[in-house]
Amino acid sequence: MKVAHCVLIAGLTVFLMQSATPAQGQSVRAWESTIVIPTYKLGPADPNPPFPLVNSHPVYPYTMLDDLTDQREAKTYRALYLENKYLKITILPQLGGHVYSVYDKVDHREVLYRNHVIKYGLVGPRGAWISGGMEFSFPFAHTTDTVSAVESALQRNPDGSATAFVGAVDWVSNMYWQIAITLRPNTSRLEQGVTLFNATPLNHLYLFWTNTAVKATDDMQYVYPMRETISDDPFAIVQNWPVWNGVDQSWYKNNPSAIAIFARDVQRNFFGVYYKKSDYGVVHVADFRQDPGKKLWSWGTAPSGKIWDHILSDNDGSYNEIQSGRFYTQGYREFMNPRSVERWTEYWYPVRGLDGGFVEATSQMAVNVSYLAEQGKPQVKLTISPVAEVSGATVLFKQGAKVLRTFHPDTLLPLQPISYTVPVENLDDVRKDLEVEIDSQQGKPLMHWSASAPIDGNPDLVPSVGNALRSKPVTTATTSVEELYMNGLFLEKSGEMDAALKLYEQALSRDPNFVPALVHEALYYYRAADFKTARQMIARARQQDEENPLAAYASGLIYRASRQISLAEDAFWTSIHYGTALAPGNFSAAAFVELGEIETLQGNNARALEFFKKAIDYNPDDAFALADLAVAQRLNGDPKTAATISERALQIMPLLPYALAEHWQDMQAQNKAGTSSSSVVKRWNSTIDNDPQNYIAIASWYHRMGVWKSSEAVLHAGLAGNSALNIEAMAYYYLAANAKRLGNLSQAKAYSLKAASLPIAQTFPNRLTDVAVLADVIRQYPGDAHARYALGNFLFAHARYDEAATLWADALNEGFNDPVLLCNLGVYQWRVKQNLADAAAYYVRAIHLSPNDYRLYTDLDEIYEEQGNNAARTGLFRNTPTQVLAQDTVRARHALLYLETSRPDEALAQLSNHIFKPWEGGVIIHNIFVAANVDRGKQELANGQFAEAERSFRAAMQYPESFGTGEPAEPETAEQLYWLGIALQKQGKIEETMSVWQKAAAQGTGKIDVSVVFAALAEKKLGHASQAQQVLSRCIQAATKPDVSANAYYLAGIAEYYSDNISLARNYFTHVLQIDPLFWQARVALYSL
Fold this sequence. Notes:
Layout (H helix, E strand, L loop, with lengths): L28 E14 L25 E16 L3 E6 L5 E7 L4 E2 L10 E4 L2 E3 L4 E4 L13 E6 L5 E9 L4 E9 L6 E8 L6 E3 L2 E7 L4 E4 L4 E3 L8 E2 L2 E2 L2 E2 L10 E5 L6 E6 L4 E7 L6 E6 L4 H10 L6 E7 L8 E3 L4 E12 L7 E2 L3 E10 L2 E10 L3 E2 L2 E6 L2 E6 L3 E2 L5 E6 L3 H7 E6 L5 E6 L30 H13 L3 H14 L4 H13 L3 H14 L4 H13 L3 H18 L5 H14 L3 H14 L4 H13 L3 H14 L4 H14 L7 H11 L4 H13 L2 H12 L8 H14 L3 H12 L11 H13 L4 H13 L3 H13 L5 H14 L3 H14 L4 H14 L2 H9 L3 H4 L2 H13 L3 H8 L12 H19 L3 H10 L18 H13 L3 H12 L8 H12 L3 H14 L7 H12 L4 H14 L4 H9 L1
Antiparallel strand pairs: 1-2, 2-3, 3-4, 4-5, 6-7, 8-14, 9-10, 10-11, 11-12, 12-26, 13-25, 14-24, 15-21, 16-17, 16-20, 18-19, 20-23, 21-22, 22-26, 23-24, 27-28, 28-29, 29-34, 30-33, 31-32, 31-35, 35-36
Helix pairs in contact: 3-4, 4-5, 5-6, 5-7, 6-7, 7-8, 8-9, 9-10, 9-11, 10-11, 11-12, 11-13, 12-13, 13-14, 15-16, 15-17, 16-17, 17-18, 17-19, 19-20, 20-21, 21-22, 22-23, 23-24, 24-25, 24-27, 27-28, 27-29, 28-29, 29-30, 29-31, 30-31, 31-32, 32-33, 33-34, 34-35, 35-36, 36-37
InterPro entries: DUF5107, TPR-like_helical_dom_sf, TPR_rpt
Organism: Edaphobacter acidisoli
Pfam families: DUF5107, TPR_16, TPR_19
């Protein structure tokens, strides 16, 4: 493990730190070392590709990390440290760049929630996730690298401050994120510089949130300057803050259920929390126009929330999250334009001694204002908790135009609160128009607060409490084409891509020449490497609007990928001409990059220089374009200037793999002996070596520009790295393609044969260049099963299912008998062709080759379940290895088999003596437990075992901690209570019977789930038959409406069953399974008929 080195970015002070020796004077200490943290081991990654068709999280080409264990061990992590006399900050690059600890050296306490173990929960997009500290989420909530290694570097700055950089390229989108964590001398704040970069020629969806954990205690209050709140459900109603439905939600202790609250239209730059007992708080500050999102999250104080204390930690208790974000909510993402760079700064810091909270905060200080009336003498008290050392400040109290008092403190010191008290004539008046100003010695405003301003700082807020800000999109025969398209965009931003595509296609069915939809669809096919269809779509768009810059730019991309270079150049120039007129820089920067790369590919390096320079003129922060420019400069014979340019790129984005590699190439080109300085080699290689995909990405970039030798050099460096196994096959395919382009055909053949001999199952291509390389291999070597398999993965991930399956079948016929390939073919037959018999056959073969891959068993059991083949399910579990049977998902499926065949005791046995690890929000284990106890109780009733039935129904209302599901604040137990009443009635316990039925009846209000039916049945038992029948009729009627959901059919089936309409109930349950074959409750119900 590399623990002793820390290399800084080029052009700035470069240092290697072998120990934690402090810097001299007031400079911030910065060093790399190690930290040992008890860690619960992760099981092996899922070997099967997480295709969008089968995985709700858009993480392809990553693997899923959802195999959690109870095995705890001491593990050593690399750690970056920043320290001054106020704070010590610990950052863990191997865990997503988390800020693990911010320690307050003055108050001797952790500022944030520090988790003393690494204990994974199933919360992240790939599964494993950890709580505590600060997490950086891009391009969706909880980044794909949240528990994986990211790139990192340390930098010492001329002003004595130091910066730790963490960041990575997200391989789903190929966008880049970078966080610069800076600690300055004589300050007590963490400065967070955010850089987001769409390094691709396409737009991509993104969001960014900093997820900061704070200790949750009963004395903690949320200090959020807001009047109204919204949720991540865009159709939910706006709520009032802080009091909603009679509850003051600003106190952690007052929220029993989980909450996710977002500030609405706040125009203030701060928020945070405050602990009343310790008179201590945590503050966040950022420009609200750049970073408007202000979110608070809590698991809640009910057992359903508290149980996560133990799921995610051993002994560190509860935490809450206070989050800052690029957008107002996490309910949607926005499109980032190609080559766009977004940058802003945030601050996080502790405060103390503020008498209960703060009313304003800046990057320099937080303040609180109190109104006192001691002994009949009205006074105003200002308390300041400074964040930086400030000398010669002026503190001014004003009431209207009247100056009440001016103070001149000598020096404000971080974490040393200071108070000023001013007598006033009337507290009621001063509450309305008091103003406080604090200016620097030079007259620069440091803080301003006014009592007359709205708490959210927004004088133009339109009150919307009780109303939704938007309505659900409704499509009718009269919906306009433009509205269909906009609704499609909204669905796409909300993560519903399939539904969005249907609306785009519907728009085109009404108007085949609607340009925005044509362009969108053309780029969709381009991303999937279906260039033929993309050309057809974009040609229709340009026939309608030849001057549309986006259509022209899109056609340039499509023609370039189709190797129709002249047409591509014409299209890019059109986008530049008309794009500049409409929106300068919007398309021009990206188009000039494309033109520059085309010239580089054709060997016209001088011309390429011109284009790259124009791109940078439009977009000076585009470090990738600077790397492009350095390539052209090097190839044009000036490696020294090239090195200066790539160094400039690294000053902007010090972890960008392409800039790191090019700087290495530039430095190497200056050395006549062909070797560069060891520090440069060590720097670029060690920075990116934690993720071998970096090498493929860089090689792909060089290959795309025709810089074959540089691509080759990078690949050889990657193959010599510590983690080459994951990229070996693809690296050799690229080496073969490079050799072929260089005219070395014998070497190309050797590389191709080498690639075909290497493990390939974990290769999940996701770049268009990957497609081109693999397609060329297949054309030259049709019998290369590995290349066919890998290309099939790309195609299937991009919804080209039949073509993928053909490639996979060919690979199998060529002798690539691999469990992942067989699983892929099984998925195709199951999810695409609905051929359950063939799907099962493929899975059986996959299990034979990989008998310990527990995920294969759960899939196969689901297939058998859809077939209704319980005998095959029984045989499957009978022959399953013991260690596989112990897995959570396999136990759940095994229990479902018993439940669906009315064997509740066996189902419950599968759930006992085992600790389950549910996904966030996952309640299936508890639901199976409830259903099994209810089924057992009903059997006991039928057998006259009324006391035993009572015990079973009472058990159905319990929440065993081993399930990972705690009792919610308002549990839904109408079904259990209804049947418990029956059991009690049978025993003659009439008073208790009436009581539980009344409780059951009370749960039916305002809900649309099965509890409504059993609440109605309880009402009937209480003598309200007419009222009960009306409820049942409404449930049945709901199933006759258009676009009925599986849940609505199920509810109607239950209502019909208890209305003694058995055949109608059977029909509804059958409809449920036609919509959702895995709706196990309907299967249980059918078996009982």
